Amino acid sequence: MKKNNFIICRCEDISWQDIDGLIRKGFTLEEIKKLTRCGMGYCQGRTCFNILTRLLKIREQNLIPKKRPPLKPVIIRDIIKYFENEE
Predict the structure, then answer these.
(1) pTM (2 decimals)?
(2) Superfamily (CATH H level) for 3-86
(3) Which of 7, 38, 49, 87 has its CB surrounded by the most CB atoms within 10 Å?
(4) Can you give the residue ranges of every domain in the chain?
(5) Contact indicator for 19, 8 with CB cutoff of 8 Å
(6) Is residue 16 packed enough to be buried (19+ CB in 10 Å), middle (13-18) or exposed (0-12)?
């Protein structure tokens, strides 16, 4: 399998070639996510986030953001209970 055809984000069908092209143009991780929706699919980046950050490191870009909560799915009912108990 050629690396240009290698799929980075299975949820959004984004290939190595797509991501590498954007990195070479100087886009940051946040910009790449907004342009391609990589990391915003069903898995919420569990599959592709590490690959994406490694690609940025390979290209000598240390623009790796911190992960933001929630790191796993949260049930809306739990959020409502949290704020109801806060009062």
Answers:
(1) 0.60
(2) BFD-like [2Fe-2S]-binding domain (1.10.10.1100)
(3) 38
(4) 3-86
(5) yes
(6) middle
